[in-house]
Design brief:
heterodimer; A: mainly alpha; two-stranded antiparallel sheet; 19 helices; B: mainly alpha; 3 helices; about 0% strand; elongated
């Protein structure tokens, strides 16, 4: 079978622009496109799983001149997570999705998938912008005061971020005359040291806004609070995961130096502490979940920064943390639609998600923290280990409070909504029990 | 005309545009002015890209028998893309600001708007 990863981007993009012609069937067409994308992402994932990394050149120009898509086991997993949860989430949103919403949803999915699989740094910037513009519009789509406030904050920070990413790309291009990530990685040593670090700082700041890293995450709580449940859930698994993966690639492939690892490690630790402590202080459920997301992103960043030193445990840890966070947070955001957990299915979803986030064996979140600890012990980072434990205690405290407040039978959720939440949460169990992640982490990576 | 001498003034303009833009974003409280400042910043970045691609004495990158030196065409393609992206963000921002104005009756941030 010939695999064309470009279809993962092309199908949602084309469908998004066809939808306005068939307004009435917009949501159905979008559902079909996302279902296709999910199937194709699963196909690509298992192809990479058994045959190793693949790449596809676009428009017949070979790299480094042409744009190319590079898929290794990591990006295949990320593409799978984004498209799989996008489909489940779209089923949960159901009738609330009109044709405009479906269009923007498809654009956000196409952009996030593009960030993950592209091998060209300017292409990555364009996909960042597609994702960001679609997300601004999705957040503002609810049209109440809170939603508009969140959208405006995200827009201001996102626009500054896009300028910074572009400056970073321009600085790299001014020295190396190339935009191909692997070509840059091969010749990064020949760059002028000052320009190299300036471009790293610009790219980290720019992408860090999307990846919800402290202190660039001022937009996060308001945007998640203002957005509707389906959009908040989308934001928690698509753009943020794609952005943290982009930072990982920046660190592991383009700038594989000791200093980048140190910077990312301590930025990650601070993000983790600030996120978890702020989440503990929050009264509003969505704001609490948003701050908790920030904390989790910090932990994923710690795992990726350790992965640049020691691939053995840290990469496994980061994959488990990503899977756990995507599954648990999206189902918890969907759950925030009703005050209390209505029915067995939503209780199951809520409790499994919380347990996975605080790290109960044998769920995915537990293995993430376990391997993160092992990696930190290998590096003898005792202070980091203590801080991660402390953050875990704070996390357990506010999630216990959350469960205490929201166990009950009030509220009304449709059966389909509850079933989709339960399905999402089940992935935290599934990935925790399957040996899939260990195999993925041991496969060869692009440029790694 | 000596084009080589143009590069330094261009970099100074880039720095000026970026600083004016960032200063505007930080210091203004009117949301429309903030988005205008963001546009100024984007212009600065675009100028930076064009300046990087400039080769002293080069002409526009269109093949012509009379000229031997061309400027680097790739940054110009990047700038075209960046301009389109900036335009779409500005259009969306103005649409959002219109509904913000309709809801709140002002374009200043409200006191409740925590940053």
């Amino acid at each position: 079978m010939v695999i064309h990863p470009v279809l993962l981007i092309a199908i949602p993009l084309i469908t998004a622009f066809i939808i306005p012609i068939f307004k009435k069937y917009g949501a159905a067409i979008a559902g079909g496109a996302i279902a296709f994308n999910m199937g194709y992402a699963i196909g690509i994932f298992f192809h990479v799983y058994s045959n190793g990394k693949i790449y596809e050149t676009i428009a017949g120009f070979n790299p480094p001149i042409g744009i190319f898509l590079a898929i290794d086991s990591l990006s295949a997993l990320l593409a799978l997570i984004i498209n799989l949860f996008a489909f489940i989430n779209f089923v949960a949103i159901g009738k609330e999705a009109n044709y405009k919403f479906s269009m923007l949803y498809l654009l956000a999915i196409a952009g996030s998938t593009g960030i993950v699989i592209t091998g060209d740094i300017f292409n990555m910037f364009v996909f960042f912008e597609i994702t960001a513009v679609a997300s601004y519009a999705l957040i503002a789509g609810k049209k109440d005061k809170k939603a508009l406030e969140g959208a405006i904050k995200y827009m201001v920070l996102g626009s500054i971020a896009s300028s910074f990413i572009l400056i970073g790309i321009a600085l790299i291009y001014s020295q190396l005359k190339t935009l191909n990530i692997y070509d840059i990685a091969a010749r990064i040593a020949s760059m002028d040291a000052k320009i190299k670090w300036a471009s790293f700082a610009m790219l980290l700041t720019g992408i860090g806004v999307e990846a919800e890293i402290f202190p660039l995450n001022g937009w996060v709580p308001s945007a998640y609070q203002g957005a509707s449940e389906g959009v908040a859930s989308l934001l928690s698994f698509a753009p943020s995961k794609a952005a943290i993966y982009a930072i990982a690639r920046l660190m592991l492939v383009i700038f594989p130096f000791h200093a980048t690892y140190e910077i990312a490690l301590w930025v990650g630790v601070i993000t983790l502490l600030i996120g978890e402590l702020a989440a503990f202080m929050q009264e509003d459920v969505k704001r609490m979940l948003a701050y908790s997301s920030i904390g989790q992103m910090g932990m994923i960043l710690i795992a990726f920064s350790l992965a640049s030193q020691d691939l053995k445990y840290a990469l496994i840890a980061s994959l488990f943390l990503i899977v756990s966070h995507a599954a648990s947070k999206s189902s918890l955001f969907l759950l925030s639609k009703s005050e209390k957990m209505h029915g067995m299915a939503s209780k199951y979803a809520g409790i499994v998600s919380v347990l996975s986030l605080i790290g109960m064996p044998p769920l995915a979140g537990f293995w993430g923290k376990w391997y993160l600890m092992l990696a930190a012990m290998d590096e003898k980072l005792w202070l980091v280990i203590i801080l991660i434990f402390f953050a875990g205690i704070v996390e357990t405290a506010y999630f216990a409070r959350y469960l205490h407040r929201s166990i009950g039978n009030d509220g009304e959720l449709s059966l389909r909504y509850k079933a989709t939440m339960a399905a999402m949460a089940s992935f935290a169990i599934l990935f925790g029990l399957l040996p899939l992640v260990y195999k993925i982490a041991s496969l060869p990576l692009w440029g790694g | 005309m000596n084009f080589a001498a143009l590069t330094l003034p261009c970099y100074i303009t880039v720095a000026a545009l970026l600083s004016i833009g960032l200063y505007g974003v930080i210091s203004k409280s009117n949301l429309m002015k903030i988005f205008i400042s963001l546009s100024i910043m984007e212009t600065g970045v675009n100028l930076l890209l064009i300046t990087i691609g400039h080769i002293p004495g080069g002409t526009a990158p269109i093949e012509n028998a009379n000229f031997a030196k061309y400027v680097d065409p790739l940054p110009q393609a990047l700038v075209l893309t960046a301009i389109v992206i900036g335009l779409s963000v500005t259009a969306l921002a103005i649409a959002v600001l219109i509904s913000y104005y309709q809801k709140n009756g002002t374009l200043e941030y409200k006191e409740g708007m925590k940053w």
